[in-house]
Amino acid sequence: MTDARPLGADEATFITVVRSGDTARFALITERYRRELQVHCYRMLANYEDAQDMTQETFLRAWHKRESFEGRAALRTWLYRIATNVCLDFLDKRNDRTPVPAELPGAGSELSYLQPYPDRMLPEDPQESVVARETIELAFIVAVQHLPPRQRAVFILRDVLGWPASKAADALELTVASVTSALQRARVTMREQLPGRRLDWRSSATHELSSDERGAVRSYIDAHERNDLDGLMSLLRDDLRFAMLPDPGTVTTTAEEAVDGWLSGGLFQHGHDDWRGITTTVNRMPAAVLYLRTPDDPQYRLFAIAVLHIVDGKIAELTGFDATGKPWLDLPLTL
C-alpha cells in the first residue's frame, strides 16, 4: 500500500525504531495517533469501551507487524489499516453487534450496545475530519451500524476520512471496483437512515454548541433539580424521540406522555426526586449527567446520562444511558 509520497520524518523515525526494537520509542511514536484511531474504531463499533479495547489491540498488532512497515505509506495510513481490520475481525466474531428489529412497530432498529463518546477524548485538532460533528453525532453513529461491516469500513474510509478508492481498496484487500460498488450501496443506506440530514461529510462542519443547545441542557438540569415538571415538559417537542439504553424501545411521544411515563416509572416521586446535574458534551452534542440522592444516602450518585438533540431551542431527541453504579466515561460517581 502506497501513498505516492516521499518518506516523512515520522516514517523514517519509525523504521529506525523498528530496526532497533525499542518498545518505549515505538509506544511514544504511535501514541500520538491514539485518539483519532479510537474515534475510527468507535465509528466502526458504536461502543466506547469496545473502541478503547480495539485501539489497544491495534497497537499490539502494529508491534507484531512492525517489520512489515517499509515507509511506502504514511504511518497514519498503516495504523488506520490495522485498526480497520482489527474492528472487522472483532465484528466477525460477534453476533450481537448489529442492529436488531425494534419491539415496537415503526420504531426502526435498536442498538442496545450503543455508548456515548466523551468529547474530551476527541483529537484536539478541530480541523481534523475525524472530529467533524456531523460524523460523530449519535444519529450518524447509529446509521453507520446499519451497514454491513466491510461496507461500513469502505464508507468511513472513503466518505468520512476522504481516502481515494485505491487506498481504501488496498487497506481492505479489495478491488477498486468492489470498493466503488460498496460505497454506492452504503450511501443509499445512509440517506435512508438519515433523512433530512446533511450528507456531505467532507465539507466544513460545525463543532461548537449553539446558544439554543447550551440553554436547553441548562434548563433540562434545572427542571430536574427543582422538580419542575411543567418546565421539563415545555422543553420537549411534541414529536420527541426517546430511548433509554440499554432498554429496548425507541418511541416517538408527546411531551406530556413522556413526562407521564417517567412519573409512572417512579421518577420525580418520593425517593427519586432529589436531583443534581452537570453539563457535558458527548458526540459533539449537549448532555446532562444526572445524579440522584435517595433518602438514606448522604451523597448524590451517578444515575444517567441524557444526550440531547436540540431543534429550535427544544429537545427533539433524548437518548438516555443508564449509568447507575458504572465508573463511566471517567465521570465522578458521586456529587
Structure description:
Residues 140-189 form the RNA polymerase sigma factor 70 region 4 type domain. Belongs to the sigma-70 factor family. ECF subfamily. Pfam families: Sigma70_r2, Sigma70_r4_2. The protein is an alpha+beta fold and 335 residues long. It has two domains: 9-193, RNA polymerase sigma factor, region 2, helix turn helix motif (Rna Polymerase Sigma Factor, Chain: A, Orthogonal Bundle); 211-322, Nuclear Transport Factor 2, Chain: A (Roll), CATH 3.10.450.50. Helices cover 44% and strands 16% of the residues. It has helices at residues 9-20, 23-31, 34-45, 48-64, 75-93, 138-144, 149-160, 165-172, 176-193, 211-225, 229-235, 255-264; strands spanning 100-101, 109-110, 236-245, 251-253, 275-282, 285-292, 301-311, 314-322. The strands form two sheets. Strands 4-3-8-7-6-5 form a six-stranded mixed beta sheet. It has a two-stranded antiparallel sheet with strand order 1-2. The radius of gyration is 22 Å and the shape is globular.
